[in-house]
Amino acid sequence: MQRRQLLSSAAGAATLAMSSNAQTPGAARAVFELRYFRLRNTTDNQRGRLTTWLVQNTLPALQRAGAGPIGLFAASIAPDSPFLLAISSHASLAAYEQNMAKLLADEAFLGASEAFFSQPGLPFQRMETHLLRAFGGFPSLVIPPAPEAGQPARLFELRIYESNSPLSLMKKIGMFENGEIDIFKQKGLPPVFFGETIVGDRMPNLTYMVWHDSLTAREANWRNFATSPEWKKLAATPGLSDGEIVSNITTYLLSPINGSQIR
User: pTM of this prediction?
Assistant: First the structure.
């Protein structure tokens, strides 16, 4: 493998996104990269080796390049498990391209990566990259408060809402920005980010992340949300029912990896 080809597909994706999804002038909306590393349960500790490379080499190099915050997660309950997910935040699409170029010029990272990819056995089965642009009403990633000493690891929930058309997707984004995000905050569903997918599969769609103190807390939080008068009123707005603007929902329950900045 050529060292400087590492991650080059992501840079190409950013160029495509810039040509087809021009950002609103004057808007300050972050861009998020979601990189899925698809794994297999093998005898050569595929997950452990990949985790070490991500925590010890990739995360510090992304920080040096100017990216952040950065989250590293393992699938707890999710389709297509096992996998690891790396989420990085960038100030803009232009900043994303610049940060990727800096990453590819980082000799310490490239040397560590060459050693990692030269080991016997596959480092992962496949890698998938998605790019998201933050909502105008939630323009950047929010790190949860630091957990208290002795507190169990939090549970993070990633949800993908597919829509039938770009128009129905815009209606759902507007629904979030004009009330639903506020209800999330009030009912115990603190958001980490909201983003429209600009490069990825199953488009058009949006993706967001919230966090919970535990699986039990998650059940209570969603119950509080679903039964709240505020949500029932918003969901009853003509033209905004799920059947009209959301065609499919995929849910991932994730656990932060030690070293993740989002935890």
Answer: 0.88
Q: What is the pLDDT of residue 26?
A: 46
Domain presence at residue 84: yes
Phi, psi of 91 (to 5 degrees): -65, -30
Which two tokens mark 146? 């630091």
Distance CA 222, CA 108 (A): 44
* Partner residues linked to 155 by β-bridges: 212
CB-facing half-sphere around the CA of 260: CA atoms within 13 A: 24
Is the domain of 171 the same as that of 234?
A: yes
Kindly tell me the sign of the dihedral angle through the C-alpha atoms of 125, 118, 49, 52: negative
Q: What are φ and ψ of residue 239, in 5° steps?
A: 90, -5
Tell me the DSSP string of 21-83.
SPPPTT----EEEEEEEE----TT-HHHHHHHHIIIIIHHHHHHHT---EEEEEEEE-TT-SE
Reading the block at residue 154, the tokens are 């939090």
pLDDT band for position 17 (cuts 50, 70, 90): very low
Give the three-state DSSP class for 263: coil
Q: What is the predicted pLDDT for the residue at 43?
A: 86
Residue 41: what residue type?
N
For residues 27 and 106, membership in a common domain is answered with yes
Q: Which of 191, 172, 167, 192 is nearest to 181 (CA)?
A: 191
The domain spanning residue 8 has which CATH number?
3.30.70.100
**Integer Cα distance of 64 and 81 in angstroms:** 30
Domain count for the chain:
2
Range of the structural domain that residue 103 is part of: 3-134
The rounded Cα 205 to chain-centroid distance in angstroms is: 13
CB 188, CB 221: distance < 8 Å: yes
Whether the link from the prior residue into 79 is cis, omega within 30° of 0, is: no
